[in-house]
Specification:
Chain A is an alpha+beta fold. Chain A contains 6 helices and 4 strands. In chain B, a hairpin with a 6-residue loop joins strand 9 and strand 10. The chains are: A alpha+beta (about 190), B alpha+beta (about 475).
Amino acid sequence: MKRIVLIPVLALLMAAACGGKKPPVPVAPPPFPNGSAPGGGADTTASRPPDPPPVPGGGGVTARPIPNDPYSARDIKDINDNSPLKPVYFLYDSDQLDDTAKKVIASNADVLKQQATWVVTVEGHCDERGTAEYNLALGDRRALAVRNYMLTLGITAERLRTVSYGKEFPFDPGHDETAWSHNRRAHFMLTSK
Amino acid sequence: MMKVRIAITLFLAALALTTVSRPDGVVYASRLAAGTAQDEFALALSNVGAHPHIGLPNFVVTGGGADQATAATTIADVLWSDIDFEREYDMIPRKRSASIPVAPPATLPFDQWSDLGADFVLAGTARFTSATAVTIELRLIGIKGAGRGKEYFAMQYDCGMQTARGPRDCAHAIADDFHKQKRNLDGVARTKLAFSSNRDAMRVTGRPTTTAGQGKEIYLSDYDGANQQRFTVNRSLNINPSWSPSGGALAYTSYASGFPDIYVANLAEPGRALTRPAHGSDQVQNQLPAWSPDGTKLAFMSNRSGNNDIWIVNRDGSDLHNLTNTPSANDGAPSWSPDGGKLAFTSDRTGANQLYVVTAAGTGLQRLPISQKIDRPTWSRLNFIAFTIETSSGHDIAIYDFNNPGVKILTDGVGSNESPAIAPNGRHIAFVTTRWGHKQLAIIDRTGQNIQKITEVGDNEHPTWQPFTTK
């Protein structure tokens, strides 16, 4: 009994530990502290001293992308257009996660663990058969179901946003079961990285 | 010096003359001196099943040129449609009477009108006093029997003709006055619709595919679909507009900041003076606004307690509170009763979405006895609720009448029919239908008759009907 409880706790702790090891992102200091711009004039760009020449040779820092991270050079739009985060599909009028859905969510959670700075929005979508108003709530339930399962996999709440689009944004414009099955989804969108 | 003063005086006199022309839509009505034979007309109307047959020929036009003649024809066409729309009279199609010579009321070709079956003719003159002002004299003349040649209605209307809206606004004002005087009926010819549409195909930036990112904006139109114009311009999803009781503001849901929140736009203010009284965020999302009848509050659906409930907030954002605190159920689509004392809403607390009524204080919850799945209740000031009902073929528009309890399905199962909006006089219902392919707005009489197409371009959804505005 105790062990069952401990496993998710351990997973959470490990996730937290992983997050803690990540080096802090360097933040450039503001060019001048507030109100102390040289000359004190309104036009600070005019009185700014020229940039120093680049430091030549040894002692400088060379930067290069981490070879194993395929996403560092891609912008958010590009990643969303061909995303490693896969959609989760639902049955008609259902917000239940079946085994396939849970596997997809777990794989998406792995991506988020690799990309520790990513914040995602889980969008709830519906097929066109229910009424527009009902589907706004159904989409919300789908997004929340996926979010809640992600939380159990150790992804922290502040990295997961949700939004319901009801049946307003169909991925497949068709009007048959194929289209409907594509449109009953929770879609992952990268919001910031 | 003297010459200058005279010139200024002349200029001012000219200015005074030109300001006589009216702004479009502001119509001055005055009764003509001629006596009206009200009683006999009332007698004819009280005859059961006898909707009088009325002909409406072109006006006798004086003054102006070809443009003014065209404007006068538009006024007659629109007036015909406005009167036909309220179904109080059996209007003779203008095409059928087109061959009858246009004549002043005194010299109407009575026999020809009688042959067409006319009981009365609504005959008028259009006198253009300038290119931008017209005076319409309108008389209802008896055609048959002892009433032949008698006047049953005689009014004069001064209308502005300064913009393209002029002729239609003039006709709408005349129609509403005619219905009020002859039938004590509040016509809806001057009311408007608001709805959402993807017709301009504005793609929302950052969306993964074209169809999953086609924005919807709010549009306004006259009640009859004329003068459609875009209201929101933000390349996002803007849906479910709700017209404030005074007619001066719209509440709607916008995803402009990335999540759904309720916006209130003031139609008279430059820049709309947008407010967000429901305090949405990326964690707290709000949908489906509905105004209280006094315009001080909004009810809406919100997931701020972890699931969707009905919440109420003052228009200024104060006194936010949960009306239906049901953690295990989804409550949505609120609508206020005409006296503001109750709200209708949907809930899936027993499984499928059913129609519930609760007091504004959150007490006295009651489920209305409707077995089918329903959505989007809309409470008319005439004490019935229109809603979407699930039928074997899809969705239809139905009403539940408190005066005669029971469900009546109005639409005919053709296509999917959703999201009713009730005209302020309770006689007509605008809704969304797929019967012509794309989602289009249509209007149907409360009796279930006379379906009329309102929109043509793109997909058009979520109608709301402007209430009667205080004059």
